[in-house]
Every structure is written in C-alpha cells, then in structure tokens.
Amino acid sequence: MSAGYGTLTAIGLGPGDPELLTLKGLRLLRAARWLFAPVRAPEAPSYALEIAWPHLDLARQQVVALVYPMPRDGEPDEAQWRANARLIAAHLADGSDGAFLVEGDPLLYSSFTPTLFTLQDEFPSLPIRIVPGVSSIVAAAAQAHLPLARLDERIAIVPATSSRRALREALERYDTVVILKVARHFEALLDLLESLGRADNAILAERVGTPRERLERDLRALRGQALDYFSLVIVSGGWANG
Amino acid sequence: MSAGYGTLTAIGLGPGDPELLTLKGLRLLRAARWLFAPVRAPEAPSYALEIAWPHLDLARQQVVALVYPMPRDGEPDEAQWRANARLIAAHLADGSDGAFLVEGDPLLYSSFTPTLFTLQDEFPSLPIRIVPGVSSIVAAAAQAHLPLARLDERIAIVPATSSRRALREALERYDTVVILKVARHFEALLDLLESLGRADNAILAERVGTPRERLERDLRALRGQALDYFSLVIVSGGWANG
Q1: Inter-chain contact A153–B131, Cβ cutoff 8 Å?
Q2: ipTM more than 0.90?
Q3: By three-state DSSP, how is residue B39 classified?
Q4: A240 touches chain B (CB under 8 A)
Q5: Which of A131, A163, A198 is at the close of a domain?
Q6: What single-letter DSSP state applies at residue A14?
Q7: Within a domain: residue A3?
C-alpha cells in the first residue's frame, strides 16, 4: 500500500534577494510540505531559510533543520550527512514532497551536494529534482557592472583556502578570477594581487541583494577590516579599460 | 523639458526554460516599453526573445532587434556595437524604459557586455541596471545531477576555442572544467579528454530546459555527430565515485 517516497526538490534560492528566486523555484517551493533548511549548528540561523522566508506559508509547510557543520580542515562529516539523508527520507516516506533550500545554486559549493550522493546511495528510489539558481558570483558582477567574460575569455573559480601557488597560477593564466570565502584570507590575497599587478580591476562583494550587502571597488581600503564568511572577490580581465 | 533617458535593464533570462526567469527579471521585463533583442543578422531569430516570449505583452511592448554578428577570428565589430548603443539611446531618449534581453546571465559571455561599455562611454547619463540570471552551466549541471564543486574544489571555465595548451592545463589542474561553445571543436576535445583520462566523468549539454534539450553522458557516443553552437561540456572532479 506504500505510495513510495515523495520527491525532494533542491531549490537554488539565489544569492540573497528573495526576488532573485526563479519562477520554477517559487512554484516548487510553495508545493513542498517539508522545507529542509541547512544550518551550521542546532538552533543556528539558516541563510537559505531567510531568503525563502517571504515566499513560505507556514500554516501548511513545516521547516526541518539539517545540521551541516563547518568543515574542519576540509574533512567532511559523513556520519552527519547520512543522518541528514535519513531524516529527509523519513519525512518523505509517506509520499509527501520536500524542498531542500539552498542559497545560490544547489551544485555550486552548497550543502546539497553531499546529501545528493548520500541519498542516491542509501535511498535510490527517492526521486530527486534540482532547480538551478542565480549564483552569488553572477549577482556580484551584476551589482558591480563588472563583466565576468566575453568572447573567448577564460574564468577560474578558486576558494581562498587554495594554495598560494594555485591562486597565483589562476591569476597569471585566467582573464577573470573569482576567489570565494575570502574572509580571513583577505590580507594574504591582497598582497598577492598587488605583487601581480591585479589589485586594481577587482571588487569585493558580500551578501549581494540583502540589507547587509557590501560592495567595495578599492580593495586596499579593506586592509584590517573584518569580512563576512560569504565574501567573494572578482578580479576582472581589465579589458574594459584597455 | 527633457525628462532624461529612461532606464535600460539588462535581464538574464536563464538558459532556455521560461520558468527559469527570476521574479525580478519578470517584473522588470513586463515594465519595459522597449525590448532589445540581440540577433546574429537582420531577420535572424533571437534566442533571448524566444525565452522571454511567454512573458511579453506585445500590445504595449515593442521589440527592437539589435544585430551582433558572430565574431570573426575573435575580432569584435565595434562599429556595430556603437550603432546598437545609439539605437538603444534613441529609443530611451523620451524617458521610456527598455529591457535588453540576454539568454543566461548578462555578464557571462553575452552580447550585453560590449554594449554596456559602449553605452557608458557614449551616453554616460543613461541609467543601466543589470539583473543576473541562471547560467546554462548551472542549469546543465542541475539537469544532469552533476556537481560543479564542493568545499575547496576549483573550477575552470574555458571556451573550446582556447589553445590546446590552455585546455590541457585546465584539465590537469582544476577539479571541474566547463568547456563552452564545443560544437566543431568536439572531436579534438574528446581526444584530449581521453588522453588525460577525463572522458568518463563528463557530460555534454545543449539547450537545457527547451524542447531541443540534449543531455549526453557518454561523450564517445557523440563522435561524428553535429552539435549545436550552444553545446557545453562539463568535466566533473569525479569524487562522486571516489
């Protein structure tokens, strides 16, 4: 008599402005019975839930927090991922549908990716759908009017935790370089940009489209300042001025 | 008595499915008097206009085609860009607003970027707003359930017209490599992927979310086939199977 699992839809909510959700994302967000919201720790706030908030109807939808701890030394917490996958499956077992809330895009540096594989491994009959979203990278570029690439240009996307060698090679070889999770790596990054002559055509962006948005075109002015975990730097090809 | 120029809003329409437009994009698309649609040649169809079509109200909105010829040997047609910028400015001179229609995202390999700079140079008082969109890259990954990056992984985005050396270096050094505009470069690319042992964890995608969508997980099966200009290949890090 089991109707089988309901569908889990991972929804890319966009970078922060609730109006940067897609029409498809909105439709499937509203159709979900369960709203799975990633958090860093129990009782911690969920940025994804904050973005989705204006679109929800909590009279008929219920939020389920999933804990994804901040990775330590890049070590994933696979036991926690399995626990999250089982919690999702338990809620969808009666055939009701769920939405996995993701800031930005679900497959670009999000908490959904490990869950995707854990679900596929442990619950292969659970249907999964993925709705892409506007990434914080294109949103920051749009806000700054800073092109990411034209014609045959090349782009590298590199977390600031990468080795200095990897960062240097990206900056030497690619027209545009996007550096993610800059926060406490900022001073070292700025030193590197200055040594390579690439500090001028760059921006730093935080939480674009939210009340906490910050957009800085003079990176040198940021020395000594505290930066958000979600800070990103875009180093442009500079051909605009060429 | 001049009210000044109306606002030009570049709207990222997403990869092809009209439902992957954002709420903000829809609102500003509907508010525009003039719809600037890029085409490759006079009378040629506009892919961007095709995506926007279901959302338009042509009783009060009017389409203006802008010709952006296919670049020859990477040489931009700056005279044509200036003509397009002047056409835009002429339509907005009475204070009415316009939307520049862009498939995907406006600052990622689009016809809008050259127009942005030409407008800023020649009509600095014309207000410009940019609404980011879902790129074909994240849409293809979503459709294929293929992660682009997690944690500290690095991504390279490289047009297939790049040198063999640049393609090889990207494939050797980056976890995920996205190769754009694959079409007639496909056989050479496949040879390179096979020689580097990276042909297995890759997909080819065309026109995701449209009736012409194509998604191929076995690149070798594509030898000898004609591919769309908008084809892209995503070579994944493969950690999903690791």
Answers
A1: no
A2: yes
A3: strand
A4: yes
A5: A131
A6: B
A7: no
A187: left (phi over 0), alpha (psi -120 to 50) or beta: alpha
Residue positions counted in chain A = 242
Closest by CA to B71, choosing from B80, B82, B62, is B80
Give the number of C-alpha atoms closer than 13 A to the C-alpha of residue B10, restricted to the C-beta side: 32
Residue B4 CA from chain centroid, whole number: 31
* Mutant choice from A26, A70, A108 vs B, greatest count of B C-beta within 10 A: A108
Mean pLDDT of A40-64: 96
Q: Using CA atoms, how far apart are residues A211 and A205, in angstroms rounded to an integer?
A: 13
CB contacts of A13 in chain B (<8 Å) are: none
The string of pLDDT tens digits covering residues A160-179 is 999 999 999 999 999 999 99
Contacts A134 to B, Cβ<8 Å: 12, 22, 105, 132-134
Quick check: A169 and B170 CB within 8 A? no
Q: Which domain holds residue B101?
A: 8-131
Please indicate, yes or no, whether residues A14 and A122 belong to a single structural domain of this protein: yes
Examine the fold and report which residue of B101, B131, B161 is the final residue of a domain before the chain moves on: B131
Query: For the whole model, what pTM was predicted?
Result: 0.95
